[in-house]
Amino acid sequence: DAGITQSPRHKVTETGTPVTLRCHQTENHRYMYWYRQDPGHGLRLIHYSYGVKDTDKGEVSDGYSVSRSKTEDFLLTLESATSSQTSVYFCAISEGGNNQPQHFGDGTRLSIL
Amino acid sequence: AQKITQTQPGMFVQEKEAVTLDCTYDTSDQSYGLFWYKQPSSGEMIFLIYQGSYDEQNATEGRYSLNFQKARKSANLVISASQLGDSAMYFCAMRGGGYNKLIFGAGTRLAVHP
To answer: Which of A43, A100, A107 has the CB atom closest to B100's CB atom?
Structure first.
């Protein structure tokens, strides 16, 4: 299994509070991604990174920011959480190359009350 | 715009029978890749199979095969000899937009009945 650890695995918080989710990899892969999964939508890309300090927006980036100060860590921050951000969040990594799949962490279930 | 469509929200199949999960895609790129992932009730995402747009043969991985019809823009997953452990959500995804980003379909929930 790819070495990807997401923390926390579960979190309940209140509207308006800041939240940071962490993704840690031990594979030294260049690319890292954050997705959210909601019923009826599959997985949607929030932000991605193609190197240390190199990040860009995905399809549903509003309300989220990311940082990657080290190859192994990719942080997702909700500056002021809203109930619409209640979701399951997945981190994924890829080493690049056209035929290389993304490998996913186990997900973080985030509930915003 | 690139898009993945999975038209079957739910499917069921008898154990030991084959089942086909549909996936159609839309892209103007000449080079792209198609992936299938399995998500069991425990929640993890498991990579199953990959098909490149220039691959002339359909991809196979054990009991999984991908029926790739490029002209019809379809990449259906075929599971042969279904097992109870195949009950899960299945997602079709396409690589697009650079940086190995994936675009996912909404998924198909498969139930395997004994």
So the answer is: A100
